[in-house]
Amino acid sequence: MTMVKMPDANGHTITMVKWQGEYFPPFPGTGSRMDKMKDLPMRDNDVLICSYPKSGTHWACEIARMLVSNKAENHHIEVPSGSWFRYMLDWWNSQKGNPNVLFITYEELSANDQKVVKKMAEFLNCTNTDEFYEEVARKCSFHSMKKSREDAMKIFFRKGQVGDWKNWFTVAQNEEFDKLFQEQMKEAPDLIPRIIFDHQPQAH
Questions:
Q1: What is the DSSP letter of 189?
Q2: DSSP 8-state class, residue 125
């Protein structure tokens, strides 16, 4: 494991941890954790939640915890990158037919209704009442989770909105991204409809 400084086009750098050819945030103990993960014993009822950074990891984890524990209570989670397109395509194309893998999008999580909760409950074989699912959905709303966190954990919760790109992209940038998105995602046309975008850019 080595610490490396990665420059961007403007000459700014970010420090990352390089472990076996991959880059990770420089959290304490990253290398040792990754080494141990290779030999981590897996149980039949283990649940793995995998996501690209800032794509609703804590959101999905909170819902899964409540469903598995059968308690609609917020938990305080301590959580010890490459191309987003490559990440999504590799997972989708290799696992979309796997009955042990459930795909949940950030857009589905942000909808904040019982639909995604019931979907996850069915996948996890967690049976409960509609009232419980409604409570889980309420407790796992973005604002509820952010409010329940200690100050140090609030950095993991930004806005929880779909379409925030309109505050950052110009019309030209949005058109450029749309073109890139369609080009990169052509390997998985069945995935595109699940990623919902509001294609109404605002000029800056």
A1: T
A2: T
Q: Give me Rg for the CA atoms of the chain.
A: 19
Burial of 120 (0-12, 13-18, 19+ CB in 10 A): buried
Predicted model pTM? 0.52
Please, which residues bridge with residue 23 across strands?
18
On whether both 182 and 116 belong to a single domain, the answer is no
Residues of the domain holding 103: 43-156
Q: Is 117 exposed, middle or buried (0-12, 13-18, 19+ CB in 10 A)?
A: buried
Orientation angle between helical segments 114-123 and 130-139, nearest 10 degrees: 110
Three-state SS annotation for 30-99: HHHHHHHHCCCCCCCCCCCCCCCCCCCHHHHHHHHHHHHHCCCCCCCCCCCCCCHHHHHHHHHHHHCCCC
Same domain, 110 and 152: yes
pLDDT per residue as tens digits for the range 142-172: 777 666 665 545 555 555 555 666 777 788 8
